[in-house]
Each structure stands twice: as C-alpha cells, then as structure tokens.
C-alpha cells in the first residue's frame, strides 16, 4: 500500500503534521509513506524515520508552476498511489491530490475544491480555538475509524529528527562566534514570514539585553529567517548597546539553517520567539519555550508536546480584534503585539531558566 501525504507549506504547519505521520506508520507498518512538501519546509520531514520518501517541489509562480505541477503529476501517477491525504487544502495541494488519480483521496470540505476528494472532512470556516494538530488529525478518521481518537501530545508529539552531521557543524559555528564551552544558551528568533506575527525589534532587544546582563549571563543566539534577515543585526546592535560590558553575550547567529536551529534547541536552556515556524521546530525538542502570541491564540498553536516540558506564553490578553484572519490589522497599530510588554517576556524567561513550569 502506498500513501501520499500532502502539506506544501508553511514550516510550522508541516511540523504540525508529524503526529499524523507517526500514527499512520503505527497503523500501516508495511506501507510506503510518501510526503509531498515545498523546498523551504522540507528539512522538517527530511529525516523522519517513518517516511519512505520525501518529495520536494519548488515554490514558483506563473507558467513555471504549471510546468512543475504537470511534471509532478506524471511522476506521482507512476508511484501507483493508493491513498492521498491532503493536509493542506489549498488550491495547489487539492489539484495535485486529484491529479494522482489515487482511488482514495482525503481532504477538507473547502468550497470549490471538495469535488477533488473521494472522502471529505468538515473544517470550520472561521477561526476556532482548537489546536492545528487536532484539526489535521480529523483527516485520519476518514482514513480509518480506529484512528479517530483525539491525539495525545505525550504519545503523538511533533518531531523533527536531527541530522547526524548537524551536531559537529553546530560546534564549529559556536566556536566561530566565541561562545564559551558549556555556556547557558538561549535562542531568540526575531522574525516571522507573516508581519502580523512580528514582535517589535526594540522589545526583542530589551529581552536579549536583560538575559545577557548580570553576574550569571545567558548567551543569547539571535536568529531570523530569510524573510527578515536584517532584523538580527538591528536587534543585536541595540541589545549589545543596552547590555554594556555584557554585550558580547548577545550573538548574531547568522548561518543557522533550519536543521542547525533544531540541533541548537537540544543544547539551549531556553527558546524565545513569536508564533511562527521556528517556535514549532523548537517544540520538537525538550527546550523550554516562551511563545509570543499576537493575532493567534495558544489554544490553536501552543507547543504540541508533553505537558511536563516547560513552556510559557506571553500575550496581550483579550482584544475585540483578536484573533484575526491576519490579512488586515483593523486598528492599524498591531496592538496585539505591541501591547505584549518586554517585562512580561523577561519574567517568563527567567522563570523557565530557573527551572519553573
């Protein structure tokens, strides 16, 4: 039996599908499990031991995408796929699911696309305070009724295995940044592909300076994705200035790939970031996490892992416009983010660094 999973993007959303991968492997131990993903999110599943093959596709627009998808459809049909589970529900993923010609095609009842599936699962049309892992798990009930029971974060946690060579590469990078061996590390991710999830840079800088300050400083590795790489330099410069003599403990962690970021989480005492892909990559490790929530709710996107692993959230609290669809900021000032005070994040970070829960 050959089963294809489709989840094209984004990084965090691909992380949220990994419990489904494990559940399918337990139910169908002899099956070929294929996973279709776009290139930038492929590292999340590239080393997943439950998958037989990961198929990556480029993210291109216009006629190039049409050519890519036609070639991909021909290749997928040669795989003789028995079942496709579309974990995305977007136009491209639905079309590719249909083009496989698999006899069983499972997907959500999205208007205009439901006809491409043979088994359809209801999905709420509006934002629901329900975790994304649970939403995607709903599709398993249409695959096999024995898989319909809700997922358990302790058994069905998100995962992203560390590539074997990544640890040595991280050692070389830390040495190049003059990070002392055995130093207490915090990772601070300061960007997000979605501007609705970007906490102010000045707030990140204040938190980094606070952690680097004092007689027992924490080395703060400041990272960002390609969507806002320049933010790191600005945050690091402001934090180093504020930290004074301890400014050297705030490090521009340029060059950390997604795989190395995941590897660094196993070394770190803390991870701080907005509700974006890197936070969910961190959730595949046991590092304590402080997540900064803006337009989203913890009920939908809190780190999905055993409750015994420490995590904390920082948010502005109830607002008439929160949560939102992240297309237009109705007040115009991103208050769901700007009202999250650095002091709130600093207190949560110190609590977790001291072993709190």
How would you explain this protein's 3D organization?
- The protein is an alpha/beta fold and 357 residues long.
- 35% of the residues lie in helices and 16% in strands.
- It has helices at 11-27, 62-78, 91-99, 132-143, 166-176, 201-212, 230-243, 258-265, 277-282, 298-301, 335-338, 342-353, and strands at residues 2-6, 32-38, 53-57, 83-86, 104-108, 119-121, 185-189, 219-223, 250-252, 270-274, 289-293, 311-315.
- Strands 3-2-1-4-5-6 form a 6-stranded parallel sheet, sandwiched between helices. A 6-stranded parallel sheet has the order 9-8-7-10-11-12.
- Helix 1 (11-27) runs parallel beside helix 4 and helix 6 (201-212) runs parallel beside helix 12.
- The longest helix is centred in the N-terminal third of the chain and has 17 residues, at 11-27.
- The mean pLDDT is 93.
Notable features of this structure?
357 residues, Rossmann fold, 16% strand, 12 strands, alpha/beta, 12 helices, six-stranded parallel sheet
In short:
The protein is α/β, with parallel strands linked by helices and 357 residues long. 35% of the residues lie in helices and 16% in strands.
End-to-end separation? 44 Å
Structural class designation: alpha/beta
Task: Name the CATH architecture of the largest domain.
Answer: 3-Layer(aba) Sandwich
Q: Total strand count, please?
A: 12
CATH C-level name of the largest domain? Alpha Beta
Report the average pLDDT across residues.
93
At the fold tier of CATH, the topology name of the largest domain is Rossmann fold
Count structural domains: 2
CATH superfamily caption of the largest domain: Glycogen Phosphorylase B
Order of strands, main sheet, comes to: 3-2-1-4-5-6
* Portion in beta strands: 15-25%
């Amino acid at each position: 039996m050959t089963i294809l999973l489709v989840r094209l993007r984004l990084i965090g959303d691909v992380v949220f599908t990994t419990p489904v991968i494990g559940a399918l492997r337990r139910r169908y131990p002899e099956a070929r499990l294929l996973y279709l993903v776009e290139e930038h999110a492929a590292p999340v599943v590239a080393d997943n031991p439950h998958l037989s093959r990961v198929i990556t596709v480029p993210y291109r627009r216009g006629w190039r995408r049409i050519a890519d998808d036609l070639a991909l459809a021909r290749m997928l049909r040669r795989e003789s796929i028995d079942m496709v589970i579309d974990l995305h529900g977007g136009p491209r993923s639905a079309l590719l699911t249909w083009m496989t010609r698999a006899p069983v095609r499972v997907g959500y009842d999205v208007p205009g696309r439901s006809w491409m599936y043979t088994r359809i699962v209801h999905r709420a049309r509006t934002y629901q305070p329900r975790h994304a892992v649970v939403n995607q798990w709903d599709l398993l009930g249409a695959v096999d009724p024995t898989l319909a029971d809700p997922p358990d974060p302790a058994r069905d946690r998100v995962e992203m295995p560390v590539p074997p060579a990544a640890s040595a590469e991280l050692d070389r990078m830390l040495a190049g940044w003059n990070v002392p061996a055995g130093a207490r590390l915090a990772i601070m991710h300061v960007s997000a592909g979605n501007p609705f999830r970007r906490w102010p840079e000045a707030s990140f800088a204040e938190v980094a300076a606070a952690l680097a300050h004092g007689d027992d400083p924490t080395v703060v590795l400041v990272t960002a994705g390609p969507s806002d790489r320049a933010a790191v330099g600005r945050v690091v410069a402001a934090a180093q200035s504020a930290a004074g003599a301890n400014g050297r403990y705030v490090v521009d962690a340029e060059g950390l790939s997604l795989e190395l970021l995941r590897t660094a989480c196993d070394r770190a005492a803390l991870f701080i970031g907005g509700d974006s892909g890197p936070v969910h990559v961190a959730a595949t490790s046991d590092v304590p996490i402080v997540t900064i929530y803006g337009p989203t709710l913890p009920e939908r996107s809190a780190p999905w892992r055993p409750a015994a692993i420490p995590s904390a959230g920082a948010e502005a609290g109830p607002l008439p416009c929160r949560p939102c669809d992240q297309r237009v900021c109705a007040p115009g000032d991103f208050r769901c983010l700007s009202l999250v005070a650095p002091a709130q994040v600093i207190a949560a970070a110190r609590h977790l660094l001291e072993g709190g829960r």
